[in-house]
């Protein structure tokens, strides 16, 4: 079963975020607390949304997808960015990943989103093969850029006075 996450799912979501980070060899970077996730997903101004995959027989949470809207100046429409897609190892191959992605695609169509995009690590061959089997296009000509920590602080300090937060 795929359903919208509720505030009662926050502990499970945080645990799966850490499991995903461990799989991606970056567990030390997964610092989000339950309080931060609760506010991001269920606060006054949600920053993101989540779906939960449950085993129909046991009711156990076996996966999640976390996404947020984005906007394209080229199409003039909103789109969806999938931040995380994770299915616990014991449930892989059971159709949960495809069901989560299909549910997200349905949200895109319902809400008029023209694009559904996500990132995948270049070494994650099982995921890449899975995404390609669904018809996903890998945009190899694009490179992800990121500023964080000191470089982000340094650039922010150069903002004109009127743009200072």
From TrEMBL:
Pfam families: Acetyltransf_1. It comes from Streptomyces ossamyceticus. InterPro entries: Acyl_CoA_acyltransferase, Diverse_Substrate_AcTransf, GNAT_dom. It comes from the Bacteria. Signal peptide: none annotated. Keywords: Acyltransferase, Coiled coil, Transferase. CDD domains: NAT_SF. PANTHER family: DIAMINE N-ACETYLTRANSFERASE (PTHR10545), GH14572P-RELATED (PTHR10545:SF29). Residues 13-40 form a coiled coil. Residues 1-157 form the N-acetyltransferase domain. This is GNAT family N-acetyltransferase.
């Amino acid at each position: 079963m795929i359903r919208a996450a509720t505030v009662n799912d926050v502990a499970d979501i945080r645990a799966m975020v850490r499991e995903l980070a461990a799989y991606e060899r970056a567990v030390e970077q997964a610092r989000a607390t339950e309080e931060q996730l609760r506010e991001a997903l269920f606060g006054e101004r949600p920053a993101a949304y989540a779906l939960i995959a449950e085993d129909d027989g046991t009711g156990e949470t076996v996966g999640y997808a976390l996404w947020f809207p984005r906007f394209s100046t080229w199409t003039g429409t909103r789109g969806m960015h999938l931040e995380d897609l994770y299915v616990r190892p014991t449930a892989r191959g059971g159709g949960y990943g495809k069901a989560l992605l299909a549910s997200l695609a349905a949200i895109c169509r319902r809400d008029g989103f023209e694009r559904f995009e996500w990132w995948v690590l270049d070494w994650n061959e099982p995921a890449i093969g899975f995404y390609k089997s669904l018809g996903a296009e890998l945009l190899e000509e694009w490179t992800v850029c990121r500023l964080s920590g000191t470089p982000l602080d340094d650039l922010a300090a150069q903002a004109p006075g009127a743009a200072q937060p």
